[in-house]
From TrEMBL:
Residues spanning the membrane: 46-79, 91-111, 117-140, 152-168, 174-190, 197-218, 238-256, 263-280
Organism annotation: Streptantibioticus rubrisoli
Keywords, in A-Z order: Membrane, Transmembrane, Transmembrane helix
Descriptive protein name: Glycosyltransferase RgtA/B/C/D-like domain-containing protein
């Protein structure tokens, strides 16, 4: 997946973010539309990648391949380091990797920041994967810090790293904090006064970094709206999508019997509580804490299977978990289609799959960096900015773009049948549009109108029209 880097989901917004930073590190503006506004996508991680691109001369997609490789290493080593702080049994690490990537349900469900195999295949280059891999390392380092009585400098480094995670992917930042709190509250022996002072200093540094980050106001995100509808699927079809996690809950129950302050149990409780509150209050965005529920249960199961549980329990858990992992393999085998044809992947029955998209590189021969495109096409809105152009309408929710709704309304007006030719020309001038991407059935100007000149056709029949 690192080599292939499948085109789907949010890859376009992250590529567009790199494009803007590569051209203007100081004031990149909105990643998707031509507007001088801040954006939460401008994180320390993306800034680091943009600097690599500027220094090396690598293209945006070459940098994303590098990001995918770094993220993969971070995630695998992070799981290893964290699990090794919980047990010395060698089998626990590979079991944890299997459980974290495969143990969900029999209905395919993908989401950025969720470490399932198919989600990772699509999101391997995303900031969410960077944040998740770094979170595992943070949890491992905090456990080590408490066990070995680290000094102030190392604790401050933890605080800085926490701020980087929170700025890079805010939802994963919340999950990371839950994990850190669970480790602190579950620590044995209880941390002494000196340790708590260092922890407080680290938290203060993290807060200070969040406050002074220049590319966007982190705490203004707490007041944004429009997040609920898009996250409602996180509360639907729970049994088929996440039913295999019941085995992890059994493992957590075993750990709870041995230790009422077990960190994994507390981690699970924090995530489950916030998730339940979101469901009861219909704040569906709270569902983004689900990785706290997943990871705690999956890691607990791996540790118990590796030998922490007694022999009698393992005699039952081992074969049942093996069967569950096989179900997980089947439900996620469609990810192999990104690097191999389905004919080469034997599948029992009709395995679920999520298709990748075709790229929009075919427009780059004509459309230059920074030029504006009018389109209502779902894929064009989400892919074209990855190659440098802007679109009139934002393809993704944009919390800092004040005229986001007006842009969407104007795009609908442009293609509506009832809109006059003069109104369409006025909209093109309003947004300094140089290009239109549309299908023949989309509407807009009549065929042969002198305002537009057809320049190219896309692989699916869409037209690239130049404003003349």
């Amino acid at each position: 997946m690192v080599v292939k880097l499948p085109w789907a989901g949010d890859l376009g917004i992250h590529a567009a973010t790199l494009e803007r930073l590569r051209h203007d590190l100081g004031n990149p503006g909105d990643p998707l539309v031509k507007a001088d506004v801040n954006s939460p996508y401008y994180s320390p991680w993306m800034l680091f990648l943009a600097l690599i691109g500027k220094i090396s001369g690598a293209t945006t997609f070459q940098v994303l391949h590098l990001a995918a490789l770094i993220n993969l290493v971070l995630l695998v080593t992070g799981i290893r380091q964290f699990v090794r702080t919980l047990t010395t049994r060698r089998a626990a690490v590979p079991l944890a990797i299997l459980c974290v990537t495969l143990l969900y349900g029999w209905e395919l469900f993908t989401w950025s920041g969720f470490p399932g195999a198919t989600s990772l295949a699509l999101c391997i280059a995303y900031p969410s994967t960077f944040a998740m891999g770094t979170a595992f390392h943070l949890w491992a380092m905090l456990r080590t810090a408490l066990a070995r009585d680290w000094g102030l400098a190392r604790y401050l480094a933890l605080g800085a790293l926490l701020a980087v995670v929170a700025l890079s992917h805010q939802f994963t930042g919340v999950v990371t904090v839950f994990g850190l709190l669970a480790i602190l509250l579950g620590a044995r022996p209880w941390p002494g006064k000196a340790a708590w002072l260092r922890i407080g200093a680290a938290a203060a540094l993290a807060l200070a970094i969040l406050l002074v980050w220049p590319y966007y106001s982190f705490f203004s995100l707490l007041s944004v709206g429009g997040l609920e509808a898009v996250h409602q699927p996180l509360y639907q079809h729970l049994v088929s999508r996440f039913g295999l996690l019941a085995l992890g809950i059994v493992a957590l129950a075993l750990r709870f019997r041995r230790d009422r302050r077990d960190p994994l149990v507390l981690f699970f409780a924090f995530g489950a509580l916030v998730y339940a509150v979101g469901g009861l209050t219909q704040h569906w965005s709270y569902g983004r804490v689900l990785p706290a529920v997943f990871i705690s249960a999956q890691v607990a199961l791996a540790v118990e299977l590796a030998g922490e549980a007694g022999r009698r329990v393992r005699r039952i858990l081992v074969p049942v978990t093996a069967a569950a992992l096989l179900v997980g393999c089947w439900s996620q085998v469609g990810a192999l289609n990104y690097v191999a044809s389905m004919e080469s992947v034997p599948v029992l029955g009709s395995a679920p799959t999520q298709h990748e998209w075709g790229g929009y590189q075919w427009i780059t021969e004509h459309v230059k960096y920074g030029q504006v495109i009018m389109t209502k096409d779902y894929f064009a809105l989400r892919q074209a900015p990855a190659y440098g152009p802007y679109t009139v309408e934002s393809g993704y929710p944009d919390f800092f773009l004040k005229n986001e709704a007006q842009r969407a309304k104007d795009t609908r007006r442009f293609f509506a049948k009832s809109t006059s030719r003069a109104e369409r020309l006025a909209l093109l001038r309003k947004y300094h549009v140089r290009w239109v991407i549309q299908f023949r059935s989309d509407g807009g100007f009549a065929a042969g109108d002198p305002a537009l000149k057809k320049v190219a056709s896309g692989p699916d029949g869409e037209m690239l029209l130049k404003v003349v």
